[in-house]
User: What shape does this take?
Amino acid sequence: MASKKFKSNTIMVPVPSTSIVPERDAGKLPVLETSHLGIEFGGLKAVDDVNLAVGPTEICGLIGPNGAGKTTVFNLLTKVYQPTHGTILLNGKDTAGMTTEQANRMGIARTFQNIRLFNNMTVEENVTIGLHNQIRYNMFSGIFRLPGYWMGEKKQHQKALDLLSIFDMTHLANAKAGSLPYGAQRRLEIVRALATHPSLLLLDEPAAGMNPHETEELMENIIKIRDQFQIAVLLIEHDMNLVMGICEGICVLNYGRVIAKGTPDEIQSNPAVIEAYLGKQKEAK
Assistant: This one.
């Protein structure tokens, strides 16, 4: 049962794609909309006919058993894989044929199941990498270290510290990323993703390896990120307290197909979900 502290009271409403979004996002263009999305590997349908819409300020969960295709969906959304069929619209624009970098510039950023930081670089340097497309100065200014270059560097430094402050990590700015505890590395990866100024943030098992206190702080910070930046968050997570506590809409995958979409209460009482995912989770305890 999710903590009452985080229990969402959001009213969800249908949108034309047969998905649902928070009532506050009704009438607005979904930040993400997939239609009949799928991919095959050697004739095997890893993901098939996924229809999903995420409102521009929604916290949405993508759940399912191990091997259900959740990370594959993330790889499709971020153009690591190109779909075999179906479409992906990001802020209403078709991402067909785009590269990962192009999709990122359009407003989609992600974290990974396995943390991917530059361990030998400082915490601040990891964040500033994400800022590369926001603070610009010309090559001439950079080569000769003209005032424009130093002004850009100053802005970049301040922006990085501002982002680190979200997780109270400014005091770690000069520490090596690889020296941080596991939970702090997870948080740093989220900050680096935020540095790219996304409209949709994908979090792949953000609570993995965290203790209950760290997970509760993470829940608070995901809500804070949504509210402060007015962006959407789509997360994959096995911690059901987190999912049911902060997600407003939930999409459930099994064997690469959507078996249920709805609010946390609807998902928890859905027989197909209980059989495919939640029921197995209880039996494993």
